[in-house]
């Protein structure tokens, strides 16, 4: 459980770095007349990701969940790949990447990096991580419950992003 706790804390630290990058990028986009959309669902997203990290630590301890090597190591690989995909997205979008939905009117749609293959590859990383991180230490209840909640949230978030992009970004 010690190494799993270190992993979860490393993911939490990565989230803090994301928030620093997002804050810097928000200032950049807002200085260029960026418009924020979907403020109402953002606190729900923060709560979901916080619950993920908490559930990853609480469920294995309280539920006496074992580390199952075949499951744990394969899910760790998924977590690492999800982080790599997330940072590929962040790097590709540059100052346009954010944890919030902020678009600059008239900006061009990014079609480089992972965006050549999918419209929202960053959410592929999120979905993979929400499933895989808890399963590294057999926290299946956290994986199932938060995956279901995330599916609902992603429906709202993707619609919000698609609408915002359609209104503001040129092809």
From TrEMBL:
Q: Which GO terms describe its biological process?
A: methylation
Protein name per Swiss-Prot or TrEMBL: Isoprenylcysteine carboxyl methyltransferase family protein
Q: Where in the cell is it found?
A: Membrane
Q: What Gene3D superfamilies does the record tag this protein with?
A: 1.20.120.1630
Keywords (alphabetical) are:
Membrane, Methyltransferase, Transferase, Transmembrane, Transmembrane helix
Query: In the record, what terms sit under GO molecular function?
Result: methyltransferase activity
Q: Does the keyword Transmembrane apply?
A: yes
Topological category with respect to the lipid bilayer: Multi-pass membrane protein
Any one Pfam family here would be ICMT
Where primarily located?
membrane
């Amino acid at each position: 459980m010690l190494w799993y706790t270190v992993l979860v804390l490393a993911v939490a630290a990565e989230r803090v770095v994301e928030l620093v990058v997002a804050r810097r990028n928000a200032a950049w986009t807002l200085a260029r007349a960026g418009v924020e959309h979907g403020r109402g669902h953002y606190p729900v997203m923060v709560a979901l990701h916080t619950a993920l990290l908490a559930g990853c630590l609480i469920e294995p301890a309280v539920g006496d969940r074992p580390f199952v090597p075949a499951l744990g190591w394969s899910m760790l690989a998924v977590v690492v790949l999800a982080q790599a995909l997330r940072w590929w997205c962040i790097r590709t979008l540059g100052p346009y990447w954010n944890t919030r939905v902020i678009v600059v009117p008239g900006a061009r749609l990014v079609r480089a990096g992972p965006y050549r293959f999918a419209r929202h590859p960053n959410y592929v990383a999120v979905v993979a991580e929400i499933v895989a991180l808890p399963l590294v230490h057999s926290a299946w209840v956290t994986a199932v419950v938060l995956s279901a909640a995330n599916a609902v949230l992603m429906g709202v978030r993707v619609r919000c992003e698609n609408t915002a992009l359609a209104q503001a970004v040129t092809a």
